[in-house]
Design a protein that fits this description.
The complex is a heterodimer of chains A (348) and B (423).
Chain A: H1 4-14, H2 19-25, H3 27-43, H4 50-75, H5 83-98, H6 105-128, H7 134-153, H8 162-169, E1 171-172, E2 175-176, H9 177-195, H10 197-207, H11 209-214, H12 219-245, H13 256-266, H14 278-298, H15 302-320, H16 324-336
Antiparallel strand pairs in A: 1-2
Chain B: H1 2-29, E1 39-42, H2 62-66, E2 101-107, H3 113-126, E3 132-139, H4 144-157, E4 161-165, H5 173-181, E5 185-189, E6 204-208, H6 210-224, E7 229-234, H7 243-255, E8 261-263, H8 275-288, E9 294-297, H9 303-312, E10 319-323, H10 327-339, E11 345-348, H11 353-366, E12 381-383, E13 387-390, H12 415-422
Parallel strand pairs in B: 2-3, 2-4, 4-5, 5-6, 6-12, 7-8, 7-9, 9-10, 10-11
Antiparallel strand pairs in B: 1-3, 11-13
Classes of the chains: A mainly alpha (348), B alpha/beta (423).
């Protein structure tokens, strides 16, 4: 009988991990992104011009970094609502501790990352050891983090150091540094998850924690590690965001709570866990950034903007989960009146 | 049983962990004040005198500061209609009366530098009345439920005057009305409280005279532009009560300039009064209107985000005008005015003083003192805001290297008082 680890590895092999398949797994988000680009080219071509894209990329990159953390958590069957508090705390510490002094910047970055990783550790322990539902545990941690931010800042945001601001805003090879940072996160996460034993164990635990536990994998350790790693991603995203906007408000992370989850879901990761799409998540962050730019450029009122955004996300999710085709067929049938009984996607 | 015991011990470990983090952060972040969501009570006993701060140099940036001192005479002193930079323009002690009173100050969202400063200004103004027996503050942290229930609770506890910064518009009006029915004098500042009637639903509502502000901005654009100023307004959250009257005012004022100033985006652009969103909104605006070259900001402290978006789009910096600037904007303006001869910015300020005027009106009403010099007792109290910075006339107030970026030196507070409030 093969060793449990070999069984797990073999199971992962059967899932077909290779560079080629990685591209195939994310084909739906590629298509959705392509459709958006075509729409932009037709209706708002200016959004595809160099400067417009370069202005959109930093925000998409920051979202991608945070969303990778969320993706890891969702892949483990969890969800992390502490992303907002973590990003805000990291931004508050990196600006508050350095307080304009370049010499303190490295210390401030380390302190910010350690603080949010401790929050991730609390999440992991609460979920893994204390068996608290992820949504409750992370909401509670988020409240703890928001309180910590208010205590730490006393409601007075500080400014990022010039060094951090310049690093984040500057470009190399014509691209903002945030893009390289996001790319590094995507590549590292995709490689570790798909081509290492640790990564394959991680996937197996996410797919079926009971079975993984039965074959001797340290499930609690992986769950705790996931939340810590996710917090690290949020921390980096918060630090970069603080550098980008220079004076981050003390609620700067709030908008990332739902947008990270949206990016993960649109990117093709199942909310139930197991199947994770790191590259898809990063592409979805790009999609959301461009969608925002597109809607903004049309000058649509914010009410219309929200409606278009939610409808687009619904369509993107239905396609990325493979239900878009049958749903469209149903819609066509409904419009043409050719069938009184709609078919459920499962019927196909 | 053993499982329960082990779970309990883990729970204790986690709680200990959380406490350690909170204590650690508290130690790092330093001191004072209540955190959001908590009611902080402070009894004011000492009497202080308002000190005009605008001329004080303090830690201001050396020679550059001398370039332009804050303009204090743009409005006629002593008139409620015209706010002043660095002073209130009225004597609070005249309205204190004899009856002991409890004062409450509430913010829909109180966690930014400007709100922290306004809170300190209100405490300072209230401290001029020796008959104030207690002064309470509450930050609802964007929770309308907490906001309304705190107002109701204060009314029940016998608070006599409530100064409210209305972040929730119409949603808060029933709470104001209920408090007023119990004899509380509710006054609001800086934001129109929904469709509340004055004095039935609120005793007074002090707001910026947007038509006047718009006229000042448009006149600035007309004077500062070499060609045509193509204007857009980047404001706060969708549907806020300030942007619509502001853009209406700009539209009306621009029509009088014979095409020198043109409003090219007729709806307010949603920027949430926050840097990240403002930058994204500016980028989208530039995509839609590549020729926009002048921007009005109803919260001018986000101006650096607008400038950054223009820079990244490879465009010259726009003319900017607005209300509520900050130390960061002043410092940046001093730098940009030196580097770029075409850089032009103008701001109307002393917005925090609106809260002090609202307090005075509320106190006078509670003490049954007639005070026509504080403005009307029916309808909105619309005040003209003074020019604080205008690069076209060389007026750039001092930049403080030691105060936080969001600090506002245009209120009726000395630099030391601002430093103490925001330190």
């Amino acid at each position: 009988m093969p060793a449990p680890e070999a069984q797990v590895a073999s199971a992962a092999e059967k899932r077909g991990f290779s560079a080629k398949s990685l591209l195939g797994q994310d084909r739906m988000i590629w298509i959705v992104l392509l459709v958006l680009v075509v729409l932009c080219a037709i209706f708002e071509p200016a959004t595809l011009k160099g400067n417009a894209v370069l202005a959109m990329l930093p925000f998409a990159a920051i979202l991608a970094i945070a969303a990778i953390g969320q993706c890891l958590v969702i892949q483990q069957g969890g969800i992390d609502f502490s992303v907002a508090g973590s990003m805000t705390l990291a931004a508050a510490i990196v600006t508050g501790h350095a307080n304009g002094d370049e010499g303190q910047l490295v210390g401030a970055i380390v302190m910010a990352l350690v603080a949010v990783m401790i929050a991730g550790l609390i999440n992991g322990i609460a979920i893994s050891w204390l068996r608290i539902t992820p949504i409750i545990a992370t909401l509670a941690t988020n409240a703890l983090l928001v309180g910590a931010v208010q205590t730490y800042t006393n409601g007075i945001p500080k400014q990022a150091t010039a060094g951090l601001h310049n690093f984040v805003v500057d470009k190399s090879l014509g691209l903002p540094h945030t893009v390289f940072l996001a790319a590094a996160f995507v590549i590292a996460a995709a490689l570790v998850l798909n081509f290492t034993v640790v990564g394959r164990r991680f996937i197996v635990i996410g797919s079926n924690p009971l079975a993984a536990g039965a074959v001797g994998l340290p499930v609690p350790l992986y769950v705790i590690g996931t939340y810590v790693l996710a917090a690290f991603c949020y921390g980096v995203a918060g630090i970069v965001l603080a550098g980008y906007v220079k004076t981050p408000g003390i609620d700067i992370g709030n908008t990332y709570l739902l947008s990270t989850i949206t990016a993960v879901v649109v990117g093709g990761t199942a909310l139930g866990g197991g199947r994770g799409r790191i590259v898809g998540t990063a592409l979805a962050a790009l999609f959301l950034g461009q969608l925002q730019a597109f809607i903004g450029a049309t000058g649509a009122p914010s009410s219309v903007s929200l409606l278009v955004q939610s409808a687009t996300i619904a369509v993107a999710v239905s396609f990325s989960t493979g239900r878009g085709g049958p749903a469209l067929a149903n819609l066509a049938r409904l419009v043409s009146g050719s069938g009184s009984r709609l078919r459920r996607p499962a019927d196909t | 049983m053993s499982l329960e015991r082990s779970t309990a011990s883990r729970l204790i470990v986690v709680i200990g962990f959380c406490l350690a983090i909170v204590l650690g952060l508290t130690a790092c972040g330093g001191s004072s004040s209540s955190s959001g969501g908590e009611t902080a009570e402070a009894t004011t006993t000492e009497s202080e005198t308002a000190t005009p701060p605008a001329e004080e140099e303090g830690e201001a940036e050396g020679g550059e500061a001398a370039e332009g001192e804050a303009e204090t005479t743009s409005a006629e002193s002593g008139s409620w209609e015209n706010m002043l930079v660095g002073e209130l323009g009225f004597d609070m002690s005249k309205y204190c009366g004899q009856k002991p009173m409890k004062i409450g100050s509430i913010d829909g969202f109180g966690s930014n530098t400007w709100r922290v400063q306004v809170r300190a200004l209100l405490e300072k103004t209230a401290s001029e009345c020796p008959n104030v027996t207690s002064y309470e503050y509450f930050n609802a942290n964007l929770d309308p439920e907490k906001y309304n229930s705190t107002i109701s609770a204060w009314a029940a506890q016998g608070v006599n005057v409530i100064v409210a910064f209305d972040d929730f518009g119409q949603a808060a009006v029933p709470a104001y009305r209920a408090a007023q029915l119990q004899g509380v004098k509710v006054v609001t500042d800086n934001a129109t409280p929904g469709n509340a009637r004055v004095p039935q639903d609120v005793t007074a509502a002090v707001i910026t005279n947007w038509a006047n502000a718009a006229e000042q901005w448009v006149n600035f654009f007309a004077g500062a532009t070499k060609g045509t100023a193509k204007v857009a307004l980047i404001g706060g959250p969708a549907g806020n009560q300030n942007d619509t009257p502001a853009i209406e005012g700009i539209k009306a004022a621009a029509e009088k300039t014979n095409g020198k100033v043109e409003l090219i985006e007729t709806e307010p652009v949603v920027g949430n009064w926050e840097a990240a969103k403002t930058q994204q909104a500016t980028t989208a605006l530039l995509t839609k209107h590549p020729d926009v070259n002048a921007v009005v900001l109803t919260a001018q402290f986000v101006a650096p985000a607008v400038n950054q978006a223009f820079e990244e789009a490879g465009k010259p910096l726009p003319l900017t005008a607005g209300e509520a600037t900050s130390n960061e904007v002043i410092c940046e303006s001093l730098k940009l005015a030196k580097e770029d001869p075409n850089y032009q910015a103008m701001s109307l300020d002393a917005t925090g003083n609106q809260a002090a005027l609202a307090l005075a009106k509320g106190v006078a009403a509670y003490q049954e003192i007639e005070a026509p010099e504080l403005g009307p007792t029916e309808g909105l109290t619309e005040v003209n805001m003074p020019v604080y910075m205008d690069t076209s006339t060389g007026v750039i107030p001092p930049c403080s290297k030691t105060l936080p970026p969001g600090a506002d030196l245009s209120m009726a507070m000395t630099e030391e008082e601002v430093a103490k409030a925001t330190g």
